[in-house]
C-alpha cells in the first residue's frame, strides 16, 4: 500500500508528519510531496511554477519526519500534486492520498476554497480514495488529538476500498485528547469558520474584513459540533454531472454535422472523416 501525503500549508508544516506517522502505523509505504510554500485557498487549482517547461522540485523535508519517509517540495498547488502523482510523477501511483493536517478548520461550504480539500478531491477524480484532515487552530497545541482522529478516519477509509469517488473531510478541535468528546458524522454548515465582508470600496481597490461566524443557528453542522468539542467527519463528492429532473436549456441549430476534436493533438476532424480539416491551439 502506497500513500501520498500532501497539504496546502507547505512542506515545512508539522501537520504532514502527523499524517505520515498515521500511514506508517498502518503499514504503508509513504511519500510526502507538498507545496514548497503556502497554497492556502488554492482550492483544486492546477497552477505550478515550471522551469523550462518542467515541474520544479526541491529537496525539502518537514521537521520531525521519520528518516525512512521520502520527501519532496513541489512548486505547485496541492491539487496538481495529487493529479500528477496519479500518473506516476513521484513513483508508483498512490493507493491513497492523505491531505493535511491543515492549520485551521475546513468546515461548511467554505471547503470549496480549501487547498487541503482540493488536493483530496483532485485525487478522487483520478480514482484514488482520499482523506482531508484539519485542526481548528492556526497554531495547534494538541497534535496528539489530531493523530488519534486521523487514525480512526484512515482506518475507516481503508475499510471502504471501493468508495473512491468521495473524500472524507475531517475536522479536529485543538483540545487535549482527554477533553475530546469523540468523532461524529456532520453535514456541512452553510458557511465556513470565517466570513468575509466588504469594508470599503475605492478607486482601484476593495478592502475586506474577516470575522468568526456564530454556528448556533445550525446545530449538528460540522462547524457547530467542532465548537462543542467534537471532531467531525463529512463525505464530499468529487465533481460530477447531476441533471436530475430539471429540464436543461437546449435548442437545434442549422448545422448538419459537428466537427470533432482530438484533444491530445488539437486537431479538428470533420464528422465522418478521419482527415484533419484544420488546427486549433490546445489549451
TrEMBL record:
Q: Which UniProt keywords apply?
A: Cytoplasm, Hydrolase, Metal-binding, Nucleotide-binding
Which residue ranges does the record annotate as region Disordered? 236-283
The enzyme class is hydrolase
Q: Would the keyword Thylakoid be found if you checked this record's keyword annotation?
A: no
Q: Enumerate the SUPFAM superfamilies for this protein.
A: SurE-like
Spell out the Basic and acidic residues composition-biased ranges: 272-283
Domain Survival protein SurE-like phosphatase/nucleotidase, which positions? 3-185
Q: What family is this protein classified in?
A: Belongs to the SurE nucleotidase family.
Q: PANTHER family this protein is in?
A: 5'-NUCLEOTIDASE SURE (PTHR30457), 5'_3'-NUCLEOTIDASE SURE (PTHR30457:SF12)
Return the protein name. 5'-nucleotidase
What is the organism field in this record?
Answer: Georgenia wutianyii
